[in-house]
Amino acid sequence: MNVAKPIREGFVADESVDDTIEIQPPQPQPQPRPQPQPEQQPKRAAPPPHMEDPPDPVDQFVGGKDKWPMRVRLLYKPIPDSNGNLVDTLEFRQPRGGDINRYGNPCRINQEGDVVIDERKMHYIMSALSGILPPMLEAMDPRDWNSCAYRLRDFFLPDLRAWL
């Protein structure tokens, strides 16, 4: 009787293969000698630096810190009031929404973020808040007029805290 050899696939030679692997136990590694170390003091953590809170950027735009009535000194030229007396200080009452309704908002913010004052509207608002007729305010020195206008402008701008 003829016995056929089993067909083997792959790259295996016909001779017998020894599949045994010798495993050797791990060799002990020599331990390094400890080096003498100088006495070390425990390190102390440095205290964190004192940092002040940055100022709130909204506070620089808020104009509500002034007391009413607001007084602005006219440094360059006194003007006549409605009674004909010369005044060197203008006293403004607190603005209200009705003033904006009657005379318009004298301040706006353009696309670049700059505050623009509408001079005509500001002139009439200044007249209404001070009680001095508009023709009398026309006698003001331009530096005094601008001092009053820039002092009042923040009250006609939005409060950024309301947007949060």
Q: What would your notes on this structure say?
A:
- The protein has a domain at 69-159.
- Mean pLDDT is 82; it is low at 58-64.
- Strand 5 and strand 6 form a beta hairpin.
- The protein has helices at 97-103, 119-130, 134-137, 142-152, and strands spanning 70-73, 79-80, 86-87, 89-92, 107-109, 115-117.
- The strands form three sheets. Strands 1-4 form a two-stranded antiparallel sheet. It has a two-stranded antiparallel sheet with strand order 2-3. It has a two-stranded antiparallel sheet with strand order 5-6.
- It contains four helices and six strands, in the order ββββαββααα.
- It is an alpha+beta fold and 164 residues long.
- 21% of the residues lie in helices and 11% in strands.
Main β-sheet, spatial strand arrangement = 1-4
Q: List how many beta strands DSSP finds.
A: 6
What is the helix content?
Answer: 10-25%
> What are the secondary-structure elements, in order, as H or E?
EEEEHEEHHH
Strand content: 5-15%
How large is the count of helical segments?
A: 4
- Biggest beta-sheet profile: 2 strands, antiparallel
User: Low-confidence parts lasting 5 or more residues at pLDDT below 50?
Assistant: 58-64
Structural class: alpha+beta
**Distance separating the two termini:** 99 Å
Mean pLDDT: 82
| Shape call | elongated
Cα-atom radius of gyration:
44 Å
